[in-house]
Amino acid sequence: MVYIHQAAERTGLSPKAIRYYEQLALVVPEKCPDNGYRLYSRENLSHLCFLQHARGVGFSVKEAGELLALYRSTQSHSAKVKALVADKLQILAAKRAELERLESVLSDLWASCDGDDCHRCAILERLAGEEFHHV
């Protein structure tokens, strides 16, 4: 059993993040009978690491909590987990497509500008023009 600062050191999470996970009841430490401090078990540390890893690959706190619940469960859950990952992959693909579109637009804008000391700028003129007005 370890205190919150030791749990933070071992998991790489901040004490604030650990307290947040406690507020969401994703991790429930024991209370030290002598002083009321939180004590984290090996299982608590394992769950905190799980949450950190899930967040690190892009899952929201809510999604990471769902995955942790499935991890804790003794029921069959592989299909549910795979579906959650498939959903996340679709979201990432849509974000990637949008970022690629924005990169293309910005590259085109950049190429249209001479970048000299002239007071007129092709980028600003194009941004003010019809191609960017979606009224």
Automatic annotation (TrEMBL):
Keyword tRNA-binding: no
UniProt keyword terms in alphabetical order: DNA-binding, Transcription, Transcription regulation
Positions in coiled-coil regions: none
Domain HTH merR-type: 1-70
Gene3D superfamilies: 1.10.1660.10
Protein's name in the database: MerR family transcriptional regulator
Superkingdom field: Bacteria
Alphabetical list of SUPFAM superfamilies matching this protein: Putative DNA-binding domain
PANTHER family per record: HEAVY METAL-DEPENDENT TRANSCRIPTIONAL REGULATOR HI_0293-RELATED, REDOX-CYCLING DRUG-SENSING TRANSCRIPTIONAL ACTIVATOR SOXR
GO molecular function ontology, one term from the record: DNA-binding transcription factor activity
Pfam families in the cross-refs: MerR_1
InterPro entries for this protein: DNA-bd_dom_put_sf, MerR-type_HTH_dom, MerR_fam
